[in-house]
From TrEMBL:
Record keywords: Bacterial flagellum, Cell inner membrane, Cell membrane, Cell projection, Chemotaxis, Cilium, Flagellar rotation, Flagellum, Membrane
One BP annotation, GO: bacterial-type flagellum-dependent swarming motility
Single GO term (MF): cytoskeletal motor activity
Native source organism of the sequence: Paraperlucidibaca baekdonensis
Keyword Membrane tagged: yes
Name of the protein this chain belongs to: Flagellar motor switch protein FliM
Cellular component GO terms, alphabetical: bacterial-type flagellum basal body; plasma membrane
Highest rank taxon of the organism: Bacteria
Principal location: other
InterPro entries: CheC-like_sf, Flag_FliM, FliN-like_C, SpoA-like_sf
Compartment(s) of residence: Bacterial flagellum basal body; Cell inner membrane
Membrane topology according to the record: Peripheral membrane protein
Task of the protein: FliM is one of three proteins (FliG, FliN, FliM) that forms the rotor-mounted switch complex (C ring), located at the base of the basal body. This complex interacts with the CheY and CheZ chemotaxis proteins, in addition to contacting components of the motor that determine the direction of flagellar rotation.
Annotated ranges, domain Flagellar motor switch protein FliN-like C-terminal: 250-316
């Protein structure tokens, strides 16, 4: 170190250390990074995002097919964004009025939520009653009775699709608990609660609006082990079904079995002169080769059995010899 620092610099460094002037930034890592709490809800939810994404993708497809039964002009429902947010952020991001439905299940630890933006509600209702989904002025008040009744019936019809989407992870029996028009009136959530928010973009005709799926950490905490293995479990179930169908198909497939009696060499001149009724002599074979789809499978003795020509199996070739 003496070759790198001057004596004055060494004295200053030692003096600062002795006087306690050298700061111990134990809470700050090298490079300006900060410690990360792996026990936090944010990390736990982020770790489950791949599994939850599969659930939300299935939910998007189910919602699209279901809403089309009400409004055939729905073109698509695509997953736009999946994010981990605090409830305070959600309240600031979702403008009122919105049609928010609280969905409970005994399996989940807390309610989950579906939130329809006002533009989506107006467009769906207008198309349902024969309109063209033209944009309307977003009112600051609640929805009209007709709009509320339509959305209540629509969200109730989505319950089987929610069940099917979550089935890959856990069996749930969802039921609608409450309806809200503003997230500020949801008492079950605190501003600091961690949520996984999935935004679906719904295209109705030429218009697009958003539908939100909000899953609190408290809802998935009891089933996080099941969510951690959702991809693996689904793949195992799929592979087992595929193998079963494959084996059943193989066992029922029809193959061509040929008993090769022997070989005979014939000149081209004779072949050209062959006519109907000509006889080709074949030696009485002591052994014949049984071929399955062109591959030698067994050797046998040629003869008769109960008055029919037949072959008695004498040897089965090993698999390696069959390929050769």
């Amino acid at each position: 170190m003496g070759d790198i620092l001057e004596q004055e610099e060494l004295d200053a460094l030692i003096g600062e250390g002795a006087e306690g002037l050298v700061k111990d930034d134990s809470d700050t890592l090298s490079g300006g990074g900060e410690k990360y709490d792996f026990a936090s809800q944010e990390y736990a939810v982020s770790r489950l995002i791949p599994a939850l994404s599969q659930v939300q993708s299935s939910l998007a497809e189910g919602i699209k097919q279901r809403i089309r039964q009400w409004v055939p002009s729905v073109e698509s429902v695509r997953t736009d964004r999946i994010a981990v947010m605090k409830f305070a952020e959600v309240m600031r991001s979702m403008a009122a009025p919105a049609y928010i439905v609280s969905i409970k299940s005994d399996t989940l630890g807390a309610p989950i939520y579906l939130a329809f933006e006002a533009e989506l509600v107006f467009s769906l209702v207008d198309h349902f009653y024969g309109g063209r989904g033209r944009s309307q002025h977003v009112r600051a008040q609640d929805f009209s009775p007709s709009e509320a009744r339509f959305m209540e019936r629509l969200t109730t019809s989505l319950l089987p699709d929610i069940t099917a989407a979550w089935h890959t992870a856990v069996n749930i029996t969802p039921r609608i608990d409450e309806h809200y028009h503003d997230f500020r009136f949801v008492d079950e959530l605190q501003q600091t609660d961690t949520l996984m928010v999935t935004r679906f973009t719904v295209q109705v005709g030429q218009q697009e609006a958003e539908l939100w799926s909000v899953v609190p950490w408290a809802a998935i905490d009891p089933i996080r082990d099941s969510l951690g293995g959702v991809v693996r479990t689904t793949r195992q179930e799929h592979d087992a079904q595929w193998r079963s169908r494959l084996m059943a198909g193989l066992e029922d497939s029809e193959l061509t079995l040929v008993a090769k009696l022997g070989d005979s060499k014939v000149s081209l001149k004779r072949v050209c002169n062959l006519q109907v009724g000509d006889i080709l002599p074949i030696d009485n074979p002591a052994n014949v080769c049984l071929q399955l789809e062109g591959h030698a499978l067994m050797s046998a003795t040629f003869g008769t059995h109960h008055g029919q020509l037949s072959a008695k199996i004498r040897h089965i070739y090993p698999a390696l010899n069959r390929r050769n």
